[in-house]
Write a structure and sequence with these properties.
The chain is α+β, with helices and mostly antiparallel strands and 614 residues long. The chain folds into four domains: 217 residues, Histidine kinase-like ATPase, C-terminal domain (Heat Shock Protein 90, 2-Layer Sandwich), CATH 3.30.565.10; 159 residues, Ribosomal Protein S5, domain 2 (2-Layer Sandwich), CATH 3.30.230; 82 residues, Rossmann fold; 123 residues, Heat shock protein 90, C-terminal domain (Four Helix Bundle (Hemerythrin (Met), subunit A), Up-down Bundle), CATH 1.20.120. The protein has 21 helices and 23 strands. The chain has a nine-stranded mixed beta sheet, covered by helices on one side. A hairpin with a 2-residue loop joins β19 and β20. α2 crosses α6. It is elongated, with a radius of gyration of 32 Å. The structure holds adenosine-5'-diphosphate. Adenosine-5'-diphosphate binds next to α2 and α3.
Length: 614
């Protein structure tokens, strides 16, 4: 027998369980039955793939046994089991992505609200220690010669030893803490209590769950039952089983297709973003079943990445039970099905927007940043995605706007949907690029999600109105008269602009007059297809080398500073004008929240000018 130490994160979680004040302790049984059910799914699958595997899969089941005298409760399955290495890796450590984040959040929270987090994280097996002071696990994997016995009281260590006569599968025996009404710890050895918990949390489990020889779950797949007969509570439990999200789903979506390719789908929109939504190894949420038999988790072929927050089940009638990922990728019917599922999810979000705006807003707040990835990757559905997007805008400090609402507010004569990307709302609002639009009373979308930088370039228009960055290209806001006047100005300033262009050649590609400024002397803008400074920063942060991107310096001819430069140029004062040109460029960069290439040079230029005023 060996004594091993729990990994430190596992130890912290265990301590949390032991001292848990989480009121709903019943859920430990849900977790154990859920694990057993997964193990049965895995063994069944393995037996399809590996015909030589010598195990009996004719009567796969879960058995619950209780012993009131010994105060033990055992959950046993004849599923896939675990090898010794599995036990050490899966039970002794926590490899789940997001554990560190979870523990951090727990530490930051007051104990009162930890229960939500516990549920959301889905602590699984460890939840046994909420109700037991010792847990014994005996397991055997079909490929292992011997079984393994694991035992722990949830403190720093566990013991592990080989056993010769372990049956196929896993049994988990809880040595229950004394029952105690005050601590809300019911007597879990009581058959009525066990029956009640299984009925409440695990009724839909497709494998039989037996207690005293009797089957205590109905095993009815929810997606196969008429919608009118399934209660909200049943949906919510099933959602918890597949998503490990403690919260009830925000929306339940059911779909059915008959004919040559039959399938049923039961999908859920979450009320809270999954913890791994933006993690590299984050999962997609849709499971594939074939005729009620679980086939695979995390089925990428059924849901695109940007909809990875959608959880649920798709049960296809006409696939083979040993269908592989490779086959799925090539199957035309699967692709057709995926297209319909995506459309259905998008249209469900759209109708949420109309009928339950608060819930829609909640969903958007949680998963909007993921949905927006679809604007880049799913060109077929781009319009449908645009319709369900919400954005911050200069129209309101607090509430977001849809593009349709924006279009509804467009001013007489306004042709484009204007937006500006940037690091923060403040930076965008204070940016000189906004001045002329503000003067005209035009609304501007304020796009500050990193993903916004990515999609704006690939979405040309919405509802026939082109999307136009206020910080790129030419902004065409002038009336005919203003245009004529500006052309005259441009001719008048022509020589100065050319000269300034030469002076600043290293930093800008052109100096021109601006029609977007009313109060600032200058701003820098990108060409229509240049990447933005924020995007440039993002690439650099990822370690990517980029060639230097030169932008365009625009001057406001009505500003006294620019007028002064014009006069000085006409009078032939070139020397100090060169320094002024550099200053003006620096000011334009600072005004948009940008960084100066050489701050100390800028400081000495400013100091020099200020000195001269004394
Ligand atoms: P989760 O189920 O969320 O992955 P758990 O802590 O409940 O987390 O379980 C960790 C892992 O241990 C499972 O993913 C599974 O691989 C393994 N495991 C747990 N219970 C069983 C069981 N009854 N049979 C086989 N493997 C199991």
């Amino acid at each position: 027998m060996e004594t091993l130490e729990f990994q430190s994160e596992a130890r912290q979680l265990l301590q949390l369980m032991i001292h848990s004040i989480y009121s709903n302790k019943d859920t430990f049984l849900r977790e154990l039955v859920s694990n057993a059910s997964d193990a049965l799914d895995k063994l069944r699958l393995e037996s399809f793939r590996d015909k030589d595997m010598n195990v009996d899969v004719d009567d796969l089941h879960v058995v619950i046994e209780s012993d009131p005298a010994e105060r033990t409760l055992t959950v046993r399955d004849n599923g896939i089991g675990m090898t010794r290495e599995d036990v050490v890796r899966l039970i002794g450590t926590i490899a789940k992505s997001g554990t560190a984040e979870f523990l951090k959040q727990l530490k930051e929270q007051q104990s009162g609200s930890t229960s939500d987090l516990i549920g959301q994280f889905g602590i699984g097996f460890y939840s046994s220690f909420m109700v037991a002071d010792k847990v014994t696990l005996v397991t055997k994997h079909p490929h292992a010669e011997k079984g393994v016995r694991w035992e722990s009281s949830g403190e720093a260590t566990y013991t592990i030893e080989d056993v010769d006569d372990a049956p196929q599968g896993t049994s988990v025996t809880l040595h229950l803490k004394p029952s105690d009404d005050e601590d809300r710890l019911p007597d879990y050895t009581e058959p009525a209590k066990i029956r009640e918990i299984v009925k409440r949390y695990s009724d839909f489990i497709t494998w039989p769950v037996r207690l005293g020889g009797e089957e205590i779950n109905s095993r009815k797949a929810l997606w196969a039952r008429p919608a009118s007969e399934v209660t909200e509570e049943e949906y919510a439990e099933f959602y918890r089983h597949i998503s490990h999200d403690w919260n009830a789903p925000l929306e339940t979506i059911r779909m059915q297709a008959e004919g040559t390719f039959e399938y049923q789908a039961l999908l859920f929109l979450p009320s809270q973003a999954p913890m791994d939504l933006f993690m590299r190894d984050g999962k997609r949420g849709v499971q594939l079943y074939v005729k009620r038999v679980f086939i695979m988790d995390d089925c990428a072929e059924l849901m695109p990445e940007y909809l990875r927050f959608v959880k649920g089940v798709v049960d296809a009638a006409d696939l083979s039970l040993n269908v592989s990922r490779e086959i799925l990728q090539q199957d035309r019917q699967i692709q057709l099905m995926r297209r319909r599922l995506v459309k259905k999810v998008l249209s469900s979000i759209k109708s949420l927007q109309g009928s339950r705006p608060d819930d829609y807003a909640k969903l958007w707040g949680e998963v909007g940043a993921a949905l927006k990835e679809g604007l880049l990757s799913d060109t077929d559905n781009r319009d449908a995605i645009l319709e369900i997007c919400s954005f911050a805008s200069t129209n309101s400090e607090e509430s977001l706007t849809t593009l349709a609402e924006y279009v509804g507010r467009m001013k007489e004569g306004q042709e484009h949907i204007y937006f500006m990307t940037g690091d923060s709302r403040v930076a965008v609002e204070k940016s000189p690029h906004m001045e002329a639009l503000r003067a005209k009373g035009y609304e501007v979308l304020v796009l500050t999600d990193p993903i916004d930088e990515m999609w704006v370039d690939s979405v040309p228009s919405f509802d026939g109105k082109s999307l136009q960055s206020v910080a790129k290209g030419q902004v065409d806001l002038e009336t005919e008269e203003e245009k004529t006047a500006n052309e005259a100005k441009a001719a008048e300033f022509g020589d100065l602009l050319t000269w300034l262009g030469e002076q600043l050649e290293a930093d800008v590609k052109e100096v021109r007059l601006s029609s977007r400024l009313t109060t600032s002397p200058a701003c820098v803008v990108g060409d229509a297809h240049d990447i933005t400074p924020t995007l440039e920063k993002m690439y650099k942060a990822m370690g990517q080398e980029l060639p230097k991107i030169k932008r365009i310096l625009e001057l406001n001819p009505a500003h006294p500073l620019v007028e002064g430069m014009h006069k000085a140029f006409a009078a032939g004062e070139r020397d100090s004008l060169a320094g002024t040109a550099e200053l003006v460029h620096g000011l334009a960069l600072l005004a948009e929240g940008g960084e100066l290439a050489d701050p100390s040079r800028f400081v000495s230029l400013v100091a020099d000018r200020v000195q001269r005023t004394f």
